[in-house]
Design the sequence.
């Protein structure tokens, strides 16, 4: 015997729901490209302090809704560390999928300062001294960029270091010089 739930016909639930102005605007801003192609695959650290800053930075460049994303502790350090070899496999599988599914043309790597994963995997206090910290990320991101270029020569690579205030240093040129 029916006890009145679920309601039948189920029109009351589905037909009375209307999109609000806010969700309609958000949907339009983040709408995927019609051909399912997007600009980039973003690799960033899991750190909760910078999740919003990473989105805001990419949105400020007009990339909202135009990137795939893989988040691993440490970003490039998480991919390249000897202690996380399975993460590298995960990363490369995502690169392949992002290319196949969404025709990405670029990998944007966003490491950040005061990174706990850097301290855990590199084995020294990365935040002690800013120049030394930058150099660690330059070397690691440079090695990753070199590897990306070997595996996927047609992909561009951007290497960025974010500070805790959300500001971004572009290390693309110095990192690649260091990594080669
Ligand atoms: Zn981190």
Sequence:
């Amino acid at each position: 015997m029916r006890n009145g739930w679920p309601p039948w016909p189920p029109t009351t639930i589905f037909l009375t729901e209307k999109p609000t102005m806010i969700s309609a605007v958000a949907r339009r801003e983040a709408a995927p490209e019609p051909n399912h192609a997007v600009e980039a695959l973003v690799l960033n650290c899991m750190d909760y302090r910078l999740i919003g800053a990473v989105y805001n930075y990419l949105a400020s460049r007009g990339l909202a809704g135009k990137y795939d994303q893989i988040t691993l502790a440490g970003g490039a350090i998480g991919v390249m560390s000897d202690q996380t070899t399975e993460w590298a496999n995960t990363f490369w599988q995502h690169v392949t999928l992002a290319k196949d599914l969404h025709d990405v043309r670029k990998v944007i790597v966003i490491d950040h300062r005061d990174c706990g994963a850097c301290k855990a995997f590199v084995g020294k206090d990365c935040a002690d001294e800013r120049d030394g910290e930058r150099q660690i990320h330059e070397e690691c991101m440079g090695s990753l960029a070199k590897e990306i270029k070997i595996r996927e020569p047609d992909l561009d690579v951007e290497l960025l270091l974010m500070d805790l205030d959300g500001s971004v240093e572009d290390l693309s040129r110095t990192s690649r010089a260091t990594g080669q």
In short: The domain at 34-179 is CATH 3.40.1050.10 (Beta-carbonic Anhydrase; Chain A).
